[in-house]
Amino acid sequence: MVRGLDRRSFIASAAAATGALAVPARLPAQALKVDANGARILGIAQREVQRASGVLWRRDVAAIADFSVRSSLARFHVANLEAGTVTSHLVTHGSGSDPEHDGWLHWFSNEPGSFATSRGAYITYDWYNGKYGTSIRLGGLEHDNSNALDRAIVMHSAPYATPSFIAEHGVLGRSNGCFAMAPDAFMFALTQLSGGRLIYADKLA
Fold first, then answer.
1. Which residue did the predictor score with more confidence, 93 or 205?
2. Tens of pLDDT, residues 170-202
3. For 105-125, what is each residue's pLDDT tens digit?
4. CATH code at 142?
5. Domain carrying residue 191
6. Band of the pLDDT at 33, cuts 50, 70, 90?
7. Which alpha helices (H) appear in the chain, and where do they start and end?
8. CA 43 from centroid of its chain's CA atoms
9. d(CA 157, CA 178)
10. Is residue 106 one of the residues assigned to a domain?
11. With DSSP H G I counted as helix, E B as strand and the rest as coil, what are the percentages for the chain, rounded to 5?
12. Is residue 201 within 8 Å of 67, Cβ to Cβ?
């Protein structure tokens, strides 16, 4: 069971928050074979999907964000549990989790106004057009990220989440706690993760 989750309340709030959802496309046929780390990510994804299975709408694809890794490295892993493949991408963390902007997430927070990243399992909701264009609403499934909707923690693309930003600054920029990605990586995530799928964030090392 997902920690801190009142399923009846959550399902009611999810229904109210969710609009029309498109069915994501399958991973491309040329997706790479997994290495030892990919196998580990698939195992974590399977475990977390099973743990949250009572509230997820789809269980074929999940994402694992490993915030033990510095922001200059690919640490957002999209795991296709049907195909047994993993693709890895850059993702930001919140400025409140990294006040010195050294590229490391130092702590998590669920507090409004903290601008920090929250740990735990999330469910993806609908797409909408926000400050950074197309974005995905997220719902927190645990005590540690229960304020995700109220804090407007979402997935979106951002120019400060790109390889070119790392080339200039050494690390990614920081979000207000959202999962910000490079535009091309975000479009891939958008097709794979929308519509009631799982994102799990933690320090995995």
1. 93
2. 999 999 999 999 999 999 999 999 999 999 999
3. 999 999 999 999 999 999 999
4. 2.40.440.10
5. 31-100+118-202
6. low
7. 7-17, 36-51, 163-169, 183-193
8. 17
9. 10
10. no
11. 25, 25, 50
12. yes
Distance CA 52, CA 99 (A): 32
* Alpha carbon distance 128, 137 (integer Å): 8
Q: Is there a domain that residue 137 lies in?
A: yes
C-alpha angle with apex 95: 37 to 128, nearest 5 degrees?
80
**5 falls within a domain:** no
Provide the domain count of the chain: 1
Whether residue 66 contacts residue 91, with contact meaning beta carbons closer than 8 Å, is answered with no
Has residue 96 been placed in a domain? yes
Rounded Cα gap, residues 179 and 145, in angstroms: 13
pLDDT of residue 4: 44
Which tokens in the block code for residue 44?
């974590």
Residues 105-122, buried b or exposed e (16+ Cβ, 10 A)? beebbbeeebbbbbbbbb
Lowest mean pLDDT among 15-19, 48-52, 56-60: 15-19
CA distance 115 to 93: 9
* 6 vs 44, residue with greater confidence: 44
Mapping DSSP onto H, E and C, the string for 135-162 reads: EEEEEECCHHHCCCCCCCCEEEECHHHC
Q: For residues 168 and 130, what is the distance between their CA atoms, to the nearest angstrom? A: 27
